[in-house]
Amino acid sequence: MDKRPVIIAFVILAFLAVAGASAGIYYYYQYKSVVKRSQDPQAEIKDILAKVSKLMELPEGEDPTVATVQDADQIRSQPFFTKAQNGQRVILYTNARLAILFDEKANKIINVGAINVGTPSAATPETTPEP
Questions:
Q1: Same domain, 108 and 48
Q2: Low-confidence residues of the chain, pLDDT below 70?
Q3: pLDDT value, residue 115
Q4: Are residues 53 and 87 in the same domain?
Q5: 99, 115 in Cβ contact below 8 A?
Q6: Cα gap 86→84, rounded to integer Å
Q7: CB 48, CB 89: distance < 8 Å
């Protein structure tokens, strides 16, 4: 009796078991990451700021606004965003008047610039002439 088909079947089943277990472990950790972020929404921001603070000194005493570039083509006309790519982070410190464009995947600061935060002018009420 030839044992080759039995050995081949065993190898295929072992490979499928290892692949299935690996996929299960991967998706379990992805699930845990999503649950962690949903329980503490500030955790992702803290993680990004920790990465950036290793690359440059950040202003203290202010909580920044962190946004993700969704459509880089729309904002590339602005000088600060000429090198922006989708998925990069924009960190805004309004009191310190500082903007940082950060590429999280490359762990690289793309651009740093000053922001001009002005107070909006008071709206002038429109008057209609009386008849």
A1: yes
A2: 1, 117-131
A3: 86
A4: yes
A5: yes
A6: 7
A7: yes
